[in-house]
Amino acid sequence: GAVVSQHPSWVICKSGTSVKIECRSLDFQATTMFWYRQFPKQSLMLMATSNEGSKATYEQGVEKDKFLINHASLTLSTLTVTSAHPEDSSFYICSARGTGGRWRGELFFGEGSRLTVL
Amino acid sequence: ILNVEQSPQSLHVQEGDSTNFTCSFPSSNFYALHWYRWETAKSPEALFVMTLNGDEKKKGRISATLNTKEGYSYLYIKGSQPEDSATYLCACTPGTDSWGKLQFGAGTQVVVTP
User: Fold this and answer.
1) B-chain residues near A93 (CB < 8 A)
2) For residue B97, is pLDDT > 70?
């Protein structure tokens, strides 16, 4: 299948700082990407849908001003956790939906990013 | 929001044995069911996507069935091998306009011992 690269794999930051996570489709284009998070012993939960060239749409209960999403190109979406606090510590993972060609409509996941806020 | 549940949470299987586990979901407002295999520190790998009641799909020693009327799917592993050790996730898509917006279960962790 196609590859989605997510960086960083893990990050530790101080409370109050901002952290950016990148999700990049390496060999296909994705006008739509999705961001999920997973707290310990829970399911992956959809946070938001990232749309290339337009605003992201957020799921109920997810603060758009806290989790800034930018999807400026067909292969890159970024999630910035602003003013991070310990309760934001979680596992964040993205998926990308193929836009055209061989991978049209198919979904591919990154490896995930573990965020720890001290 | 679809409430997707998986059972059991974890299971241990002896190498060579076959096993199966369940994903249940509300039968209303359903469009597609996805199965993923997820190894630690790797990306979830898509196994199957199923939409039709009675669907059966197979990939090597792994197969899955779907019953949309009663709201469940089974995943089967035949002749388990240590490399089958992983967490198996199921997820539902509620509609065509939600393609990619997955509602996940918590997963079934499978450990295959030699």
Assistant:
1) 44
2) yes
Instruction: Answer yes or no: are the C-beta atoms of B2 and B104 closer than 8 Å.
Output: no
For B42-91, the pLDDT digits (tens) are 999 999 999 999 999 999 999 999 999 999 999 999 999 999 999 999 99
CA gap B71, B13 in Å, rounded: 26
**Encoding tokens for residue A25?**
């489709």
Q: Is B99 on the interface with A (CB under 8 A)?
A: yes
How far is residue A112's CA from residue A35's CA, in Å, rounded to a whole number? Answer: 10
The predicted pLDDT at position A102 comes to 86
pLDDT given at position B27: 86
Rounded to an integer, what distance in angstroms lies between the CA atom of residue B47 and that of residue B100? 15
Kindly tell me if the per-residue pLDDT of A67 is higher than 90: yes
CB contact A31 to B (< 8 Å): no
* CB atoms inside a 10 Å sphere around CB A112: 22
Chain A's closest residue to B93, CA to CA, is A46
For residues B40-76, one letter each, b for 16 or more C-beta atoms within 10 angstroms of the residue's C-beta and e for the rest, the string is eeebbebbbbbeeeebeeeeeebbbbbebeebbbebe
- B100/A32 Cβ within 8 A: yes
> Six-digit token pair at B98?
């939600």
Q: Do A49 and B101 touch (CB under 8 A)?
A: yes
The band of A76, judged by pLDDT with boundaries at 50, 70 and 90, is very high
Q: Say if A62 is an interface residue toward chain B (CB within 8 Å).
A: no
